[in-house]
Amino acid sequence: MTQNISKVPRGGASINIGADKILGQQPINRHEETIPILTFFNNIGIHYLDQISSWDPQSHIWLGWSFPVIPSDLKSSLSTPQSRLHSEAPVKKNERNDVRWDPSGSEYTVQAGH
């Protein structure tokens, strides 16, 4: 059952950028070309979606991705995470993330499955 559970971003604070299955997609770290950028993020202390998110200071709504300055030799390694994260954005800061069960690509909440 574990292999079919993925995370649904709400605030993103507990969703690991590289290692978590998000919205049914395989983890980004399964793509060899992403390892250099994920290592860079790890080395500078960036691990979770909320850490690379820009938020509206009043409504706490997600505005967009806010990546740190990327060394020029790693820019090509960033393209895969950027394209994958495009549809995996959090919704509102400090909201608790959900989980879903999606063995066939359809969305079923864990609660509904239970």
Explain what you see.
It contains 3 helices and 5 strands, in the order βαββαββα. The chain has helices at 35-43, 75-85, 110-113, and strands at 5-8, 53-55, 62-65, 98-101, 108-109. A hairpin with a 6-residue loop joins strand 2 (53-55) and strand 3. The termini are close together.
> Could you give the distance between the termini?
12 Å
Number of helices: 3
Strand order of the largest sheet: 1-4-5
Structural class: alpha+beta
Q: Count of DSSP E strands?
A: 5
- Which spans have pLDDT < 50 for at least 5 consecutive residues? none
Large-scale geometry: globular
Question: Kindly state the mean pLDDT as a whole number?
Answer: 88
Main sheet record: 3 strands, antiparallel
Topology order in helix (H) and strand (E) letters: EHEEHEEH
Q: Radius of gyration in whole Å, from Cα?
A: 14 Å
Helix share bin = 10-25%
Name the beta content range.
5-15%
Précis, in short:
By secondary structure, this protein is of the alpha+beta class. It contains three helices and five strands, in the order E-H-E-E-H-E-E-H.
SSE order and pairing:
Blueprint: E1 5-8, H1 35-43, E2 53-55, E3 62-65, H2 75-85, E4 98-101, E5 108-109, H3 110-113
Antiparallel strand pairs: 1-4, 2-3, 4-5
Give the key terms.
3 helices, 114 residues, two-stranded antiparallel sheet
